[in-house]
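Write out the 3D structure for:
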Amino acid sequence: MEWFEAVLLGLIQGLTEFLPVSSSGHLEIGKALLGVETTDDLLFTTMVHAATVLSTIVVFRRQIWDLLKGFFCGLKGLKVSQGRLVCNDQTDYLLKMVVSMIPVFIVGVFFKDAVESLFGSITVVGFALVATALLLFFSDYASRPGRKSIFPANEYRNGISYWQALAVGVGQAFAVIPGLSRSGTTISTGLICGVRRDVMAQFSFLMVLVPILGETFLELVGGGFGASSVGAVSLLLGFISAFLSGLFACKVMIALVKKAKLSWFALYCLLAAAAIFIFG
């Protein structure tokens, strides 16, 4: 991989990670258009994903600090009363994030090889983009004003229940498929389950931090750099490109989730899928 290809792919990752159009799918499309052969090497993909996680940390630094501070300050007050855990809001929120991580952890441990085999297939990306579009359309329908949800989010602490967090986590687990947007899938799942848009805008981006950072750590510990077919310079440039573009895209997406219709992104996903089926 040449350095300019790494910059372009990092830019694609950063801009599409937070938009509900599938960053992994667009990375595969970008690789195909550039003629980059990295089918058996997921280190570059892992590194640019880590870069966008760093973007998320920067954008949500105050919220993350408040959560951590509240968690450690509330440890003394933790207790079980009448079979229920009594904790502060920050601890409750973090516990729900942990619950949301369980499905993707299971996929990562037991189905890692099966997931890796899907990368490099542009056809898989096309079908997954169609699935993303359908999810986005349905979530707009399910969350339209005036429609009663079977999961009244306002009754739940922090605007989301443990079951809703688990459902969103299942969506994230399926989104390891290239072409199935992680942000699109998690946000859509949350909206379908009755979670408010402003709640999902934050929860969706924070819940991915630990899984991707953990994946990056395992790649490095497992000697990912030594086994990589991508040079260290290309990895660094791709990381920087993804980080800077991710800062911009994250802020834009937060505003869009709160106000805009996701159906517009669904139309884009359908057009991208059609282009893959016609020209791929």
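The mean pLDDT is 83.
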